[in-house]
What does this fold into?
Amino acid sequence: MTHRAPTLRQRGFSLVELIVVIVVLGVLAGSVAVFINNPVRAYFDTARRATLADAADTALRRLVRDLQGALPNSVRVASSGSAVFIEFIPVEAAGRYRAAASSGTEPAGTDPLDFSSAADTSFQVLGPPVTVPAANGVNAAQLVIFNLGSSGFDAYGGSNRRTVTSAAGSTQAISFTAAGAWPAESPTNRFFLVSGPVSYVCTPVAGGGGRIERFSGYAFSASQPEHQQRRAGRGHAHRAGRPRGGLQRGTDLGTGQCQRCRADAATGRQRRQRSIAGASPSAEHAMKSRPTATLDRRPPPAARAAAPARGFAFVTAIFLLVVLGMLAAFVVNLSANAAASGAAAVQGVRALEAARAGIEWSAYQLRDPNGTLVAGSTALPGCFASPTTLALPGDLAAFSVQLTCTRYPSASATPTYHEEGDKRVVLFVVVATASQGTPGSTDYVERRLEARIEKCKDPSAAGPLYAC
It folds into this structure.
């Protein structure tokens, strides 16, 4: 009787099929790599540059924002060695003071600031109320008028600076301490409220780069401080003694410790020898006489001859295809996010320009530079319809620019303007908001600007402008 060896069922692909799959996958991977290589490289390069520039960009933006809001002519620069010091006085609030008493009926008082009298310690604020800042622990709120940064007109020296005695908060009247006559009045009747100077210290670091530090809460000084005493002692102290986590490589243990290590090793060898010597004779004989058996678990020759070659399962091939597809989708998503980030930055700049266009349009409507919108020697413009949506051309046409206007005094006041002698003054607060997209969506962008605009007419001046 002849016995046939059992035929085993094929469980996978043959070697030829495996090679075909590998070749096809290689061709597909090469094709995908050609298309996604540049986008992936660009994305990672952009991310790397953004990471490197993020800290410096944030510091520079803060510095630029602070300098843009600084008191005019208060920025001064000094250097000491390789360190550079930039000092300025931030403006907390600003407004327009009354320069002359009213010649008629004024809707909100008639307290002017008299520059000819050293005893005058208060004045009325024209336009919207201002907020008096609270003391910062070193300096109380300070009033500054007509700062030129030169001798006699220097806020650091104090010649044109006074301490505000009005309570912190919103107010329409400012009072201050008497300190002699003011050196000069402002040509535009402007005043500024400040609380103290601020300094930036830029210290280069060997090998490139540097460190920027910001100092505030110190007293006014006629000479620019270099903050060397504040910068001293800021280095990190390194603790001496044994390092954490055991001995470092190359540490000298000493003679005593080496002898203790050799003694511990000898004790371990003696314990192992005693454990072997204490074993029973039968156990020792069993260990010596136990034969070594070699198990041959291979199938019989006939079965081995009939067994076909095994390959990758179908599930494995599907898994590889899915992984490659997910990788391609991930790379495409990264490239799309990088493109979206760049587009958002461009849209942010355009939104800012759209808001500026709204401010310029509002200024033209309210100031009436040609004297054609509001005729007459005493007529002063009112606010345009608020809110107003402004349509812009070109690349800014996609933005919605909404404008709001507030008039001081209001059109319902009696009279409808402030009086400074024979001059008649109104002030406007204009807010321009430029936006695109749906609020809350990823492509939404918005920029907001605020401006204060003043219009003055002098009936005794020549028409048609009757300029003050």
Notes: The chain has six helices and 17 strands. The longest strand covers residues 423-436.
